[in-house]
Amino acid sequence: MGTMADAAAAVGETVRELREAYEGGRTRSLAWRQAQLRGLLRMLKEKEVEAFQALHVDLGKHRAEAYRDEVGVLTKSANGALQQLGRWMAPERVKAMKDASSIQLAIPLTLEALTPVYRLRRMQVWVPLIAWPATAQVVPEPLGVVLIFSCWNFPLGLSLEPLIGAIAAGNAVALKPSELSPCTARFLADNIGKYMDASAVKVVEGGPDVGEQLMEQRWDKVLFTGKPHHPQPKHSPPSISCRAKREPISFTCVCFYVCLTTGSPRIARSVMAAASRHLTPVALELGGKCPCIFEPMGNARELQISVNRIIAGKWSSCAGQACIAIDYVLVEERFAPILVHLHSSCLINMHVNHIHGFTRGYCIYISDMPFFVPVHAYAFARSEDQDAQGDAEEVLPGNGYIEPTILLNPPLDSAIMTEEIFGPLLPIITVKKIEDSIDIIKAMPKPLAIYAFTRDATLRRRIVDETSSGSVTFNDAIVQYAIDGLPFGGVGQSGFGQYHGKYSFDMFSHKKAVMKRGFLIELRLRYPPWEESNVTLMRYLYRFNYVAFVFYFLLLGLKR
């Protein structure tokens, strides 16, 4: 009890210090925000080797993968925020409307007549003419003290990417890294305070009990990017035998660590329930089953590139343990054998033959088997059938290692097609016509991403128009995550709230409307006593028909 009380007291003290730092006002200045971003960049540069080591110990990531998916992406994001920060912080003037009727008397030229795009963008309208003289602005201001829960599978990237936006927006920040990636959590706790303002940016380590204590506090925003279950790697895998295409192959395993995100919605509901006590706004980045529609390309080169990108989109990032990884593929029946063949051969070539000294084949380790087995029961039950590329001992070996496995046409109501896989199993669902894939996607919860490999412009348009998802990417996978100009976030059960680039800044900012009026013009029609003429004049005003308003107003004056 004493330990729990001490931990709760420590959490309360952390929040008090953050609140004090924010209320003191120093986090609001441009200089402070720039200093924090520069400090973060220095940490990423000077502590790069330590970061690689932490990611390797926690997740078995090669330094190239760690740089591609985490350190490099963060360096890009922090540099981009540093370059654009002054522009993001500047008050936004109210933009001109496309319909120029609201400014007929102020500007005799319609906006449609201003053909050059740059002139349209520079045109500013303060407020409707009837409010003149007046000015209007939208001023971004920091929300205050915010809390970020990060996830174990990209423990550095999912901690620091939203932190960049929160700091750029001028907030004080508490970062709760996942205890399931302990080395990376320790790396962050040891270094954040050395390179950034330790009184305004704090790392809080601990398990679920600490998370619950944090949610007892009042926050101005909470971002949750959590995956609840994660294996704890304890040793390197032994050499075992496996089969590719049902032929025996001896090889040395390349180890990855895998789990299943069975609890993300459950944990997210708990976070939202706790936040509701203080009316704290919450952003959730969850996941879901991200589909990939595959339509063979017109030539062999494009077909090979497409398959390479699908493999990378499924297995390349954290061995398939990514919320935006491809979850299943939809393909026409006639092309399924080609797709399976190309996947089998390319996997061996891409992921094994070019890995330092390893021979053919690679396996993936599942330590969190109690959570993995129930959802993947269909795969394990069918692993000896012709529909699964692999054998039972490889799909579910006794020592917990499995190899990448393709499942052909599992039932759509089976667990593997209703739960996020978050692992090395790839269902391939065949359809009569590729257009039928849209109906399958629409019948499932809205995913975080939809991928489609196709040259058909009509199909692309239908996917965009008829489906709903956090993002749609054509002819590639996962790369949209690295583009700061695109928002990253889900919809429906895949989450809500968007970040990356300026979207991160906006998520951690409040856009405050600011208006100033003069006293030159005052219309009595806005005050009682009411007359029918007041209603007529207001109709003209709300339709921005100032010419009719002026004529009617003058006519009333003459009558009186």
What key attributes describe this structure?
single chain, 560 residues, alpha/beta, Aldehyde Dehydrogenase, Chain A, domain 1, Aldehyde Dehydrogenase, Chain A, domain 2, six-stranded parallel β-sheet, globular, Aldehyde dehydrogenase domain-containing protein, aldehyde dehydrogenase (NAD+) activity, Ald_DH/histidinol_DH, transmembrane, membrane
Polypeptide structure, described:
This protein has 560 residues and is of the alpha/beta class. It folds into 3 domains: 4-96 and 138-230 and 258-286 and 501-512, Aldehyde Dehydrogenase, Chain A, domain 1 (3-Layer(aba) Sandwich); 291-379 and 399-488, Aldehyde Dehydrogenase, Chain A, domain 2, CATH 3.40.309; 530-559, no CATH class. 41% of the residues lie in helices and 16% in strands. The protein has 20 helices and 20 strands. A hairpin with a 2-residue loop joins strand 7 and strand 8 (247-251). The longest helix has 27 residues, at 63-89. The radius of gyration is 28 Å and the shape is globular.
